[in-house]
Amino acid sequence: MRLSLRRFRLTKAVPLAISRGSTAAVEHLVVQLDHDGSRGLGETGGFDTGHRAYDTDAIAAELEALAPRLEGLEPQPLQALEPLLASLSPPARCGLDLALHDWWGQRWNQPLHRLWSLDPSACVATSVTLGLGEPSAVLARLERWRLQLPATRIKLKLGSPDGSEHDRALVQAVRGALRPGDLLQVDANGGWDLATAHAMIPWLAEQGVALVEQPLAPLNDAAADTAGFAALRGVAPIPLIADESCWDLADLLRLAPHVDGINIKLVKCGGLGEGLLMARTARRLGLGVMLGCYSDGGLLNSAGAQLLPLVRWPDLDSHLNLLDDPYEGPERQGDVLRPSPRPGLGSQALPLANREVS
Ligand SMILES: [Mg+2]
């Protein structure tokens, strides 16, 4: 098989600020695999969880170095490629894994969720994200989302560098703007210390917040990272979700006794192979699955959407906030995203004229 890469820019319609900083645009890679008359595409790019960071140039260099080794290999069976995939960083593995899965779906002329026998009618509404900022700006962002889609599930970023009083002001402002039936969830992105988390989580539960993601900073010391979640167990009767601390199946098994759910992101776990395994395992263990994104485009989120029938808390809104995405995202009805019925990942290149403009 022949591997080639293309870089492209993704510019956000509205920049997103979280506890670690703000993002207005990113550079991502399209990973293209050609073999025996069929083509598979994947998308990947750099990201930063606070304790681990990957840069798009380094991911491109990893994949470029791999290309000559792929020349003599075939995209199927995927099992034969597992040692090679395991040698890559998670985001480089994700790009290749997605292109291999897309090639497989194209070859059989079926979308992946159908090859896995998942049920698209099980998909539920995605959350839309409100970044950190002044309350008036955060409410203006909510109004902008509501012009685009129903926005019944709202995810508010907390962990403000301005402190927990600012977090509380944001929660109260957004609560005041909720409509009947809307659900509010929060993501601290590791921005709290243990004392702040102990104070905030019961207060958030009193405010009717539905769940809290990653209260404490993720740690490379796995035992210390697990101890942080264990110290928050039972603090409040709302689901506690691990995101930056949970990269792969091993993290899921480590954290399972201490959390109610995990946030799977394809660039973090290394693609659809690990993502499907994690989603199935989490459900079997009685945990809820969130499926999230970084500044990912329509091709990456179309891949993620193939798992949405297994997901309780979809959080796949990044492609809905892009000005120049070259690829189409998942199917959307209102604020419910579903995997496309087209083969493979189900995405397709958008004509330039169709791209959203601000
Ligand atoms: Mg998160």
Count the beta strands. 15
Pick out the low-confidence regions.
none
Query: What small molecules does this complex bind?
Result: magnesium ion
| Average pLDDT | 96
Distance between the termini: 39 Å
Q: What would you report as the Rg, rounded to the nearest angstrom?
A: 20 Å
- What's the architecture of the largest domain in CATH terms? Alpha-Beta Barrel
Number of domains: 2
Please identify which CATH superfamily of the largest domain we are dealing with. Answer: Enolase-like C-terminal domain
Largest sheet: 8 strands, parallel
The geometry reads as globular
Helix percentage? 25-40%
> Strand content of the residues, in percent?
15-25%
Structure notes:
The protein is α/β, with parallel strands linked by helices and 358 residues long. The protein folds into two domains: 2-113, Enolase-like, domain 1, CATH 3.30.390.10; 114-354, TIM Barrel. It is 35% helix and 22% strand. The chain has twelve helices and 15 strands. α5 (135-148) packs across α6. The longest helix is centred in the first third of the chain and has 19 residues, at 90-108. It is globular. The site of magnesium ion has 7 residues, from loops.
In short:
The chain has 358 residues and is an alpha/beta fold. It is 35% helix and 22% strand.
Topology:
Blueprint: E1 2-18, E2 21-35, E3 38-45, E4 47-48, E5 53-54, H1 56-70, H2 82-86, H3 90-108, H4 112-115, E6 127-130, H5 135-148, E7 153-157, H6 164-176, E8 183-187, H7 194-206, E9 212-213, H8 222-232, E10 240-242, H9 249-255, E11 261-264, H10 266-269, H11 272-284, E12 288-291, H12 298-305, E13 313-314, E14 331-333, E15 336-338
Helix pairs in contact: 5-6
Magnesium ion (MG) binds at residues 187, 189, 213-214, 243, 263, 292.
